Amino acid sequence: MTLTVAFRKSGRTVAWAATDSLLTFAEENGVEAPSSCGAGVCGTCATALLAGEVSYVEDPLYMPDPGVVLLCCTTPKTSVILDL
Amino acid sequence: MTSTETVADKPTYLKNAWYVAGWDNDIGHSLTAVTILNESIVMYRDTAGKAVALENACPHRKLPLSMGRLKGDEVECGYHGLTFNQAGACTRAPGGQRVPKAACVHSYPVEERYGLIWIWMGEAAKADPAKIMNVDHWGDSAWGLNRGDGMTVECNYLYMTDNLLDPSHVAWVHQTSFGNAACADIASDTTIADDGVIVSRWMRDTEPAPFYAPFLKFRGNCDRKQHYEVRYPGHAIIKAIFVPAGSGGDDRPLHKDVFLMDSYNFLTPINENLTRYYWFQMRNFAPNDQAVSDALARNVRTAFEEDKVIMQAVHRGMSNKKGHNIDLKIDKGPLHFRKRLAQMIAAEKPSLHAAE
Ligand code: FES
Ligand code: FES
Ligand SMILES: [Fe+2]
Fold first, then answer.
1. What does the pLDDT average to over B250-273?
2. How far is CA B90 from CA B3, B70, B87, B105, in A?
3. Touching check for A4 and chain B: CB below 8 Å?
4. Which residue owns the Cα nearest ligand 2 atom 4?
5. A4-82 has which fold?
6. Closest-lying ligand to the alpha carbon of B65?
């Protein structure tokens, strides 16, 4: 089964290819995403998850509010739509 | 409130302006911390010799970058090694992490001219080197230069702009140098220009003041002009003209024995209570005479020390005053300067003053 990642603001949908995080994946696909620590401690990469589910590959310092994900420490569990 | 009070909750410095950050030999290939307009700045020369000025606070935990290390062209933070290039961009992050996008420090535009390093304190896009004050006769082989000096004065810079627009004070502050009794009772003219204020006066048929007498090519009394000009935000040109008595006047050609000295004075506020003062003088005689340059440099320094004592005491007096202070006719030029400068500051983008 192929997972897809849709970037709503950029209007693009891309097939997920294994990388360490959605943050790296967004950057590799030329989608601007805010970030600082890259390690789940600063919250800079918090982005609304409009559809789908993610899994955390690393426990963040603070779990974001429901509907928001930290791109730097997540990968998609299902196909997702991100507000990016 | 009187016109000479500084108001703490109002922005106090013009940001979109060039200021003197130091003499060219004050900055070398090492990290030097300076404070200008209450902003902490780290300066250095890169390996090509170009002067660099960066915000002196690491974006991680705000350690002054001046406490770190200069690595070639870049500054490495002394705490965790975030590294910044001449443009203030982060080039290296610790612990194998990606370089954070928000990791950058402000890089101030810098220029070198007249042996001085100039720094632009406002919006970088507006930094135009053509706006650096022009020095007449610079490089003219008929003119001499005594490369000046600097001092830190414990007062608000506006007490210094007051002083540099006030030719009258030489009669009382500089009795053994720039002034003498002849200077006491002659009124001045005030000219309000677009880029500053000029206060000037001719003194007729007077004895030359002690500072100038040894350098005059003629004997006897003189006609003397004092031209005191300060341009925004705090750059003064003080011109002295001495000609034989009876030959002076703005409408008359300069006498062949004329003595001309243009004194350039640059004020750089460190903060509201401290000002860095730089100066040099150009003269129309003895162009390559080092002994003359040295004597002038010494005498100028002595006279400026006289100003320093007064201005520091004025700052303290005005900061702690118990009753009203008054303004006099001689304050016309200085107060016009303060008013226009305050208007220029008020017209700047509020974001430039957010940190004050
Ligand atoms: S970049 Fe810091 S939490 Fe994701
Ligand atoms: S304080 Fe500068 S890298 Fe940590
Ligand atoms: Fe003076």
1. 97
2. 45, 14, 9, 8
3. no
4. B80
5. Ubiquitin-like (UB roll) (3.10.20)
6. 2
B174 and B294 part of one domain? yes
Q: Does residue B130 have a pLDDT over 90? A: yes
Task: Read off the tokens for A48.
Answer: 């609304």
Predicted confidence band of residue B29 (pLDDT cuts 50, 70, 90): very high
The one-letter code for the residue type at A19 is T
For residue B9, the model assigns a pLDDT of: 52
- Shared domain for B183 and B228, answered yes or no, is yes
Among B45, B82, B50, B51, which Cα is nearest to B65's? B82
Last residue of a domain, one of B48, B78, B111: B111
Boundaries of domain holding B50: 27-111
Partners of B235 in the β-ladder = B231, B266
ipTM: 0.80
For B19-34, what is the mean pLDDT? 98
- Which of A45, A54, A68, A82 maximizes ligand 1 atoms within 8 Å of its Cβ, making it the mutation to test the pocket? A45
pLDDT band, very low/low/confident/very high, at B8 (cuts 50, 70, 90)? very low
Whether the bond between B233 and the residue before it is cis, its omega within 30 degrees of 0, is yes
Tally of domains within chain B? 2
* Residues contacting residue B111 through CB under 8 Å, at least 6 positions apart: B18, B117, B118, B120, B129, B132
Would you say residue B121 lies in a domain? Answer: no
Residues B226 and B322 in one domain: yes
**Cβ-Cβ contacts under 8 Å, B98 against chain A:** 35, 38
Other CB atoms within 10 Å distance of the CB of residue B89: 14
Residue type, B129: P
What is the amino acid identity at position B190?
A: T
